[in-house]
Every structure is written in C-alpha cells, then in structure tokens.
Amino acid sequence: MDFDTISPNGSIDCYVMLKTVEKKTSAKGGAYLDATISNKTGEMNAKLWDYSEAIHGVYEAGNLVKLRGTVSEYKGANQFRIERIRLVLPEDGIDINDFIPSTGFSEEDMWNELYKTANSFSDGELKAIVTDILREKKEKMLYWPAAFKMHHAVRGGLLCHTLSIVRLAEAICKVYPFADRELLLAGAILHDIGKIVVPDSILRKPD
C-alpha cells in the first residue's frame, strides 16, 4: 500500500507496521484502538472500533500486522478503518526492513569502512580501543538511528552520520596536515557511540 497515492476506495488488505497504538474509550463508552500505521511510503491514522482484546488480540508499537479495512477521508486526511487485524506470521514472508525508512546504503558496507579505517591505525593502543568498541557495538550500529527526530532518524542513520563525519575528518587532515589524523578519526568514529546505550529520552532536544 502506497500512502502517498492511496485514495478512498473498496476493501484493502495490507501489511503495515504499528508506529503507535493505544486503546481508548469512545464518547459512547465503547473501546477502540487508535493507531498510526506505516510503511516506507508514509503513515496514516487507523481506527478499530468496538475493540475487544479477546476477539482482536493485543498489540503494541512496533508490531507488524496484516489489516483488512477501508480508507475514508476524515478532517482532510485519509484514515484507515480496520475491520480485521492480526499479527504477521512467519509464513507471511514479511521482512521488517520493508517497513522502516533507511539510509539507502548498505549498513554492512558502512560498518566495514569504519572498521577498515580504525584497523589501519599505526597506534596500536588506539587501534585496539576503537576496533574493540566497533566489534562490540556492531549489531546495534547496523540499525540504530542517529537521532529520534532530527538528522538521520532512519535505520542505519547512526552509521551514515558517523561515516560522513569520518570522511569530513579525512578531508580536514589534507588541509591541515599537522593534525593528529588517527586521533581525529578515532574521535569521529566514536563521537556518537554513546547513543547506543543512552536512553533516547535523554537525547531528545527540549521542545
């Protein structure tokens, strides 16, 4: 389903990610689900009226689900009215990467370039420190965003941002050859590594 081009029509079956989902109570006292559904093309508000956990199941943000329903216009924007919902099953053959915005570059290639740079250091202690940290944090670095809402807020964003800073540091060393290249590159590689372990709430800028 392409959120950018979809228009109100008949019944739709689709796979989406629940970006947000919350159980609410309507003005008449009935339960309903209020969700934001998304894929790589965008996102849309969705409602499941007369919601029952026993019938429909329990869901949380980040779940991949299969939906059946219709799209209608509400207050100038499209809204998905959910008729049926279930969690994605292994036999559906769905890849989560198809639902998450990414940098468009290979995360493995970007990590390998960083590791190759650090592994080329002549300073043995500095090389050991940086390469050890890169190996230890590799799994998370392959998908971690650089920020919650600001720059590079996509899958692999931290790697993309870090690599761009490393390349900038390399260019600076050509202009200022007296700079300690390896120390500068080590700082560039590790300057945001703490975002992997620091809670996102601490990283957010005040509104």
| Gross morphology | elongated
Strand order of the largest sheet: 1-2-3-5-4
Give Rg in angstroms: 22 Å
In this structure, how is the largest beta sheet organized? Answer: 5 strands, mixed, barrel
Tell me what the structure shows.
This protein has a 5-stranded mixed beta barrel. With 207 residues, the chain is α+β, with helices and mostly antiparallel strands. The chain starts with 11 loop residues before the first strand and ends with a helix. The protein has helices spanning 53-56, 107-119, 124-141, 157-175, 181-190, 200-203; strands at 12-25, 31-39, 42-48, 64-74, 77-87.
How would you briefly describe this protein structure?
With 207 residues, the chain is an alpha+beta fold. It is 33% helix and 25% strand.
Task: List the defining traits of the structure above.
alpha+beta; 6 helices; elongated; disordered C terminus
Topology, element by element:
Layout: E1 12-25, E2 31-39, E3 42-48, H1 53-56, E4 64-74, E5 77-87, H2 107-119, H3 124-141, H4 157-175, H5 181-190, H6 200-203
Parallel strand pairs: 3-5
Antiparallel strand pairs: 1-2, 1-4, 2-3, 4-5
